[in-house]
């Protein structure tokens, strides 16, 4: 069976985290992997149901998603996204949540945290440098967002990176 995902970049990032958890055999890796798999199955199921959404709504959500993927390092506000698609902020949030299952701001944070994980694992950037690079003005806010999304602070990722 062949399928094309509307959330390709996001799903690619989630598969990357899944592989990292599974092959790294981190504590509770099986539980985390089950959660990620359930999320991916949910997204795939939701995308299978897209026929029930009007094509204009799908196009709007895709345009917002693409804009976020292209500009995630910049300070983005909902007003900027809504101006990009010529709709009100409430309409953009409502349509995006209905189709993607999260708000545009939550999606932005997911993309940034995924990018942060890659940067922290594959570069010599510090947490503060990574936070600034990804558009967070405050490292403590970045730490809070990172922990909310991954369940652990970014410092734990660095300690895992240093472990043999």
3D structure, described in words:
By secondary structure, the protein is an all-alpha fold. It is built from nine helices and no strands. The protein is globular, with a radius of gyration of 17 Å. The protein starts with 7 loop residues before the first helix and ends with a helix. The model has no long low-confidence stretch (mean pLDDT 87).
Offer a few descriptive terms.
globular, Arc Repressor Mutant, subunit A, 2 domains, 9 helices, mainly alpha, transcription regulation
Main sheet makeup: none
- Counted by DSSP, the helix tally is 9
CATH topology of the largest domain: Arc Repressor Mutant, subunit A
Which secondary-structure class do the elements indicate?
Answer: mainly alpha
Q: By CATH's scheme, which homologous superfamily of the largest domain applies? A: Homeodomain-like
Task: Give the distance, in angstroms, between the N- and C-terminal Cα atoms.
Answer: 40 Å
Briefly, what CATH class of the largest domain? Mainly Alpha
H/E element order: HHHHHHHHH
How many domains? The number is 2
Morphology call: globular
Unreliable residue stretches:
none
Q: What integer value in Å does the Rg equal? A: 17 Å
What is the name of the CATH architecture of the largest domain?
A: Orthogonal Bundle
In total, the number of strands is: 0
Strand content: under 5%
Share in helix: over 70%
- The overall pLDDT average reads 87
Domain HTH araC/xylS-type: 62-160
Keywords: DNA-binding, Transcription, Transcription regulation
GO molecular function: DNA-binding transcription factor activity; sequence-specific DNA binding
Protein name: HTH araC/xylS-type domain-containing protein
């Amino acid at each position: 069976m062949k399928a094309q995902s509307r959330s390709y970049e996001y799903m690619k990032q989630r598969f990357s985290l899944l592989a990292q958890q599974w092959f790294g055999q981190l504590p509770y890796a099986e539980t985390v992997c089950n959660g990620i798999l359930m999320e991916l199955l949910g997204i795939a199921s939701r995308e299978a149901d897209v026929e029930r959404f009007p094509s204009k709504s799908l196009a709007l959500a895709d345009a917002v998603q693409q804009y976020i993927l292209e500009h995630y390092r910049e300070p983005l506000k909902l007003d900027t996204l809504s101006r990009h698609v010529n709709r009100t902020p409430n309409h953009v949030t409502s349509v995006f949540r209905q189709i993607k299952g999260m708000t545009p701001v939550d999606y932005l944070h997911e993309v940034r945290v995924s990018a942060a994980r890659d940067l922290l694992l594959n570069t010599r950037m510090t947490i503060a440098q990574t936070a600034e690079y990804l558009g967070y003005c405050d490292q403590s806010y970045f730490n809070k967002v990172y922990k909310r999304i991954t369940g652990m602070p970014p410092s734990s990722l660095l300690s895992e990176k240093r472990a043999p």
